[in-house]
Amino acid sequence: MSAYPSLVWIAGGLSKGVTYDELVKKHAERLRAVLIIGTDSAALMSALATHAGQVPVYNLTASVANPTDGAAAMEAAVIRAREVAEPGDVVLMAPAAASMDQLRIMQSAVTLLLRLCNEPLVRVFQPPKSRCGVELDHKTLS
Question: Alpha-carbon distance 113 to 93, whole Å?
Fold first, then answer.
């Protein structure tokens, strides 16, 4: 997250006891919006309210007809990301939690995100420690 000056962050999932306070506090100023996916969002939403109260937060899992439908929540997140991102923003899918409540494996989430965002416009990268992320250049999504 530190590598980008302005982010639309797709985050959430099963927190498994993780606290988000330090992460949110450290990056609050670079967050344009946070798009919540996953059914275990209370801790993340609390950290956002405490440390990034000025940042718009959208609970996309709550917005879909079936909260256990991870594909629908991801699609809603990508659509909302297109709506709120501005030129120069990076849409970062970095859940900061396990995504098992939404999609069986992270690879499925990445595949879905690539399909929804027109594959040629997305660069997939492999950060250290085998965590997967997706970086979108909003200028090409317009």
Answer: 9
